[in-house]
Amino acid sequence: MKNQFTIYCISDTHQRHRELTEKLSSIVNGDILLHAGDFTNYGGTFRSQGGGIDDFNMWLGSLPFKHKLLIFGNHERVLIDDDDLERVKQQFSNATYLNDELVDIDGLKIYGASWKADDGRDRRQLWSKIPLGTQIVITHNPPDGKSHATSDASFDIDKFLMRRILQVKPILSIFGHIHTDYGVWEKDKVTFVNAANMNEEGKALNEPVGFRLEMNDDKLVKLQQL
Question: Where is the Calcineurin-like phosphoesterase domain (predicted)?
Answer without folding.
Answer: 6-180
